From TrEMBL:
Keywords: Hydrolase. InterPro entries: Metallo-B-lactamas (IPR001279), RibonucZ/Hydroxyglut_hydro (IPR036866), UPF0173_UPF0282_UlaG_hydrolase (IPR050114). Residues 18-126 form the Metallo-beta-lactamase domain. The keyword Hydrolase applies. This is Metal-dependent hydrolase. It comes from human gut metagenome. The keyword Hydrolase applies. GO terms for molecular function: hydrolase activity. Gene3D superfamilies: Ribonuclease Z/Hydroxyacylglutathione hydrolase-like.
Length: 154
């Protein structure tokens, strides 16, 4: 689907990986690439002292809140629960990374979902390293809080 007319919105780290022009977003910036579509950049970084080297705050990596036709979708990027994440409101669908040691633990994901209060939560990045995410526990701890949708990671 990528064409010469395609516009890519991404953070600086991602922009460096692409061999084309990108609209580079920083935490806190907002873009409206199409009518009816709003993109808000949210800081994405590790907060645990033992994991800060994986996604340091100073790098200004981003997650994004996409608002499309009134639906707010949060795609967290690689992050742990941050103050910026915890103040997001009116999130309909949340995509959060649950993968140790690089992103959230199950406990952190539960904390983040409870702060965001989305209608639907999709975990991602799980099962990609030796330390496997306990998806059963994740689903159990969020029962009655939100609908958790698990998709096979390949």
């Amino acid at each position: 689907m990528l064409t010469p007319r395609s516009e890519i919105l991404c953070d600086r780290t991602s922009a460096e990986a692409f061999e084309m022009n990108c609209y580079t977003m920083r935490p806190g910036s907002v873009a409206t690439p199409l009518e009816g579509v709003k993109v808000e950049a949210v800081a994405a970084y590790n907060t645990s002292p033992e994991h800060r080297q994986f996604h340091p705050r100073a790098r200004e990596d981003c997650g994004y809140v996409l608002t499309v036709g009134g639906t707010r979708i949060y795609i967290a990027g690689d992050t742990e629960p941050t103050p910026e994440l915890k103040v997001l409101r009116n999130i309909d669908i949340a995509f959060l990374p649950v993968n140790q040691p690089y992103t959230m633990t199950v406990d952190q994901a539960v904390q983040a979902v409870k702060a965001l209060a989305p209608t639907i939560f999709y975990p991602y990045h799980y099962g990609q390293v030796e330390e496997k995410t306990d998806l059963d526990r994740l689903v159990s701890e969020l029962e009655g809080v939100t609908e958790v949708r698990i998709r096979p990671m390949e």
